[in-house]
Design a protein that fits this description.
Helices cover 34% and strands 17% of the residues. It has 427 residues and is of the alpha/beta class. It folds into 3 domains: 153 residues; 123 residues, Leucine-rich repeat, LRR (right-handed beta-alpha superhelix); 49 residues, no CATH class. The strands form 2 sheets. The protein has a 13-stranded mixed beta sheet. A two-stranded parallel ribbon has the order 14-15. The longest helix is centred in the first third of the chain and has 14 residues. It is globular. The mean pLDDT is 87.
């Protein structure tokens, strides 16, 4: 706290950022972060934007309860408010409201006053902070990317203010919402609001699930009618929601990147995914990797995806579950990969058992597709036989026996495809 008391005014410099120059405080980031240490906040250079900074709750400091200075928080709060309201160099703000006690309204208002802030992430929204977020959302008309992550409450409470923002804002282009909705009616309200927002380019839902089986017609209508949406990412376990999303996508001509997370491996869902691959040639990146067969369906439920993937000439990257390679049908896709110029990478979620992995690695080598496949979710923790397979990018040898570690180290010089290696040894 000494740094804060020892002349904060010396650092209250005006913003000098321009379209071509960074602000003068960039050269003082170390000093600024020392000043802010007890506040749980830090300033970083923003990797996504040129000449701009990000104000975020600190993730590199020790546990928050150890560094938070309750007595001096009012001073920190004033310093942060000054920074957020006066510096155009702040382009991104990330707030974790659970760590800010009852001070969130003032910082949210400060964000609202700075039209240069384009990305706002509000996470860990607890019940006590919900009212402040609800009040401020309709006013965020300069924000381009908005992330909302409730903690104790469902996202339903934010639907009305977000819908108001969608109507009022000419800037919002990317919306991320996390959390399971409690009522289907609020989802209908949200997507009805989206119908009135023709400029949204990215839409991300982490757990777009709802109680009940009612078919969400507005979801299909929005996805089927929007011509501006380029990126769609949906995580949902609700069958009716999965159907509505896929049927909407089948009527869409603008989506280029599509992620369907936790979509069920069933006789109803996978044929729709197959039709998407066959007919939606605007899609360049498709991810369906975290999908599992739902009894009574067998792994063969994924067979309908193989031929469309082979015949598709526009996909550049695809993520698929390991189950697609349960038989010779899946092997046909691997054999086709070397000749497919458009498809640069196939990502396979490999939560499979070792015998299956042995077969897949051998098949990749036979087909010559190793360098166009990435095996993810499997980090070679115990079995070093697969170190040679170019589909792996990580090896975690921390839990291997001592002899296996030594054997792996001998092989590593010939494993240039590995990008990350973890080795933990006890003293």
């Amino acid at each position: 706290m000494e740094a804060l008391q020892g002349g904060t005014a010396d650092h209250l410099l005006p913003c000098t950022a321009s379209n071509t120059e960074t602000c003068q405080i960039v050269s003082e980031l170390v000093t600024w972060n020392k000043l802010l240490r007890g506040s749980r906040f830090e300033i970083r250079e923003d990797p996504e934007t040129c000449n701009q900074l990000c104000v975020t709750n600190s993730t590199t400091a020790p546990p928050m309860e150890e560094i938070f200075d309750t007595e001096q928080w009012p001073q920190y709060q004033k310093l942060l408010e000054w920074l957020l309201t006066t510096h155009r160099c702040i382009g991104s703000v990330s707030l974790r409201l659970s760590s800010m006690e009852d001070t969130s309204p003032s910082l949210l208002r400060a964000v609202c006053q700075n039209r240069w802030i384009k990305t706002l992430s509000i996470a860990d929204i607890k019940t006590t902070a919900a009212a402040a977020v609800v009040d401020i959302l309709p006013c965020l008309t300069s924000i381009e990317k908005l992330h909302l992550t409730p903690e104790e409450i469902p996202p339903d409470v934010f639907v009305a203010p977000v819908s108001t923002l969608l109507e009022a804002s000419a800037c919002l282009s990317s919306l991320h919402v996390s959390g399971k909705f409690a009522q289907g009616g609020t989802i209908d309200m949200l997507f009805t609001g989206l119908l009135r927002k023709p400029t949204l380019a990215e839409l991300h839902f982490q757990d777009l699930s709802v109680h009940g089986d009612a078919y969400p017609q507005p979801v299909k209508e929005y996805l089927g009618s929007t011509t501006s949406l380029k990126v769609l990412s949906v995580t949902t376990r609700t069958p009716s929601m999965q159907m509505a999303v896929l049927e909407g996508v089948l009527e869409n001509g603008s989506i280029e990147k599509l992620s369907l997370d936790l979509f069920r491996g069933t006789e109803e869902i996978m044929p729709l995914v197959s039709r998407v691959i066959k007919t939606k040639r605007a899609i360049r990146i498709l991810n369906i990797s975290r999908s599992v067969p739902v009894p009574p369906a067998e792994p063969s439920v994924y067979d309908c995806l193989v031929l469309p993937l082979i015949e598709n000439d526009t996909l550049q990257e695809v993520g698929v579950p390991f189950y697609i390679f349960h038989s010779a049908t899946g092997s046909a896709l691997l054999r086709a990969l070397p000749a497919k110029e458009n498809l640069k990478m196939v990502r396979i979620t490999s939560t499979c058992r070792t015998p299956q992995l042995h077969w897949l690695c051998a098949e990749l080598k036979r087909s010559g597709a190793e360098e166009k496949v990435s095996l993810e979710g499997y980090s070679l923790t115990m079995d070093i036989r697969f170190l040679h397979c170019k589909a792996f990018s990580m090896a975690n040898l921390s839990f291997a026996e001592y002899e296996r570690k030594l054997a792996a180290l001998v092989r590593l010089p010939n494993c240039q495809h590995l990008k990350m290696i973890a080795i933990y040894t006890k003293n």
